[in-house]
Amino acid sequence: MKGFLHRFRTSLSTRLSLGVVLFAALIFITAFGYMFIVSRKAVEREAVERATQILNNTVLRVNDILDDAQIAADNVDWLVYRHLDNPDMMYELARNVLLNNPEVRGCSISFEPGYFPEKGRYFSAYAYRDGRSVLTTQEGSDLYQYFYMDWYQLPKLLNQPCWTEPYMDADYEEKTGEMFTSYCKPLTGDDGSFIGSLSVDLSLSWLSETINSVMPYPNSYNIMIGRGGSYLVYPDTTKLLNTTIFTETLAVPDSEISALGHDMLRGDEGIRKMFRNGEEWYVFYQPIKATGWSVGIVCPRSEIFSSLDRLQHIVMTIIIIGLLLMLLVCSRVVSSELKPLGELVRQTDEISAGCFDAPLPQTERVDEIGQLTRSFSHMQTSLVNYIDELTRTTANKERIEGELRIAREIQMAMVPRVFPPFPERKDIDLYALMTPAKEVGGDLYDYFLLRNTLYFCIGDVSGKGIPGSLVMAVVRNLSRVVARQDLAPAQIACQINDTVSAENEQMMFVTMIIGKIHLDTGRMEFCNCGHNPPVVFKEGEARFMDIKANVPLGIAPGFEFEGEEIADVREQPILFYTDGLNEAENAAHEQFGDDRILEVLRSAPFVSAQDSIKRINVALDAFVDGAEASDDLTMLCLEIKRNKTES
């Protein structure tokens, strides 16, 4: 391989031959590429139809068994009302449900506390399977107050039949560890009041066997999630009921898994492509409408397209061998035509080795080879000086670029970049974006939690590049240190201003907004130091806040900054930004402007802090259309949400 690369670099005949072969290869690859694209679509279509058919059959079988359980409950319903005067008859009715329905594992006919005075406070006639026998018992007691169970409370609250989420039954857990789900119907008196619950229990072992009975491919597997996202069927049985489809995204955010989980929870039906552990997977999913569960088949792409991939490898091998033979023939023909160049190459090798005064061969040729020889002779006289100058220039440029890259990495590491920043706090939605105009910039933002108070700031140093980045680093660190003293934003601004003004010979100033939000009440204290007014989303409308300006930091030592506060900013998202947004220019030197900021934010309702910043960024990129940025750009958007207990 090294020999071929050397010949490619040093042989014109090889490059010409390779050009001919590459053109032929382009034709072959285009033709066969089209064939494989068509074949791939056909294979994918067949795989989708196959997996969808299997999924449809699986869901149909599951629904059949669920329907049988509902029918069993409906068939015994009228008998319960008929024998309300004989509570002991409930044991026989529950027992008959199990005898007539082999798939049913338990049946409860339970009544409100004290409904039958002669039976005391508790009366729940329960029939269950013990091996091949069907036994009955009264399951209500002080240790098992059945009327607090989901299978009793759900039909009571909903006043209609329903399926419970799967659960581990205490009695069966000691023996088999099985999961159960129950179909529950409310029992009502003549006046329509709730008197009890009829519950039919199914073991979910049959469900796992039904779903896993057919696999479209050897390494495919099945999943099923409940209404809350918990796994009901999964290859790793330790995750059943204890883990949801969203659990792994809490530690490592994964938009593909989250989108799949939301689709399945909504009861959608469809197909998703996902990348897991470096491999592409297809996920086919479909809801079980009776229970609100969702079933999915996960198939690796490698197995779906295995036969097509093998054919592709065979065809590509044939093409490569044919092109190599063509290259060999072409190289021989072209080499004989370019033989006169060999002498010139041997002479110029001495020059390339550093002997720049080596004489070139004399030639009387007037073709391209003769012109090339004379051109080399003219180049010899200036080549040494040029190479020395080029070497020095390149070394200096690489050193400067390397230092700037390191400076950029250091600067970007100084601001928080992990979002969401406080995943354990559901009441904080915060996102920020900083884009320096050069390798390093003078914009800054910061935020942190101190007890139950969120501190934040955003600022813009006058000037760009390395001077601005140095001032940015000082101000950012100084703001965090001062803020941790639990001072008001105006006091923080005074201390930063005095410190920056004392050592400000270059007269660089900083516009900045400093704020703190008390998360328990939503009260926001802030101080504006000559910065752009932020945009607030209030009552479905985006508008600029009317705030006091003050002066920028670093201009007037001893200046007394005046702070402000808003009583409650909860559910009122706020966007802070630097003038790199509103003063961004396109190729015609038109500015993005304040009106466009409001227009973008008003074009769609507020979804999240990240969504708002991304929408502005997309609109800004479309506006500037590749024009060079004239200033650093920083945006910070946050929303404080009310606790559910307060809303």
Walk me through the structure.
By secondary structure, the chain is α+β, with helices and mostly antiparallel strands. The chain contains 17 helices and 22 strands. The chain has four domains: 7-202 and 305-338, Beta-Lactamase (2-Layer Sandwich), CATH 3.30.450.20; 215-297, Beta-Lactamase; 356-414, no CATH class; 416-640, PPM-type phosphatase domain (Phosphatase 2c, domain 1, 4-Layer Sandwich), CATH 3.60.40. It has helices at residues 2-10, 12-82, 89-100, 150-158, 170-173, 205-212, 247-251, 255-265, 301-304, 306-337, 341-352, 368-414, 465-483, 489-502, 579-582, 593-602, 609-624, and strands at residues 104-111, 124-130, 133-138, 162-163, 167-168, 179-188, 194-203, 221-225, 231-233, 270-276, 279-288, 293-300, 428-435, 443-450, 453-461, 510-518, 523-529, 535-538, 541-544, 564-566, 574-577, 633-640. The strands form four sheets. Strands 1, 2, 3, 4, 5, 6 and 7 form a seven-stranded antiparallel sheet that branches. A hairpin with a 4-residue loop joins strand 11 and strand 12. The longest helix has 71 residues, at 12-82. The protein starts with a helix and ends in a 7-residue tail after the last strand. Mean pLDDT is 83; it is low at 172-176.
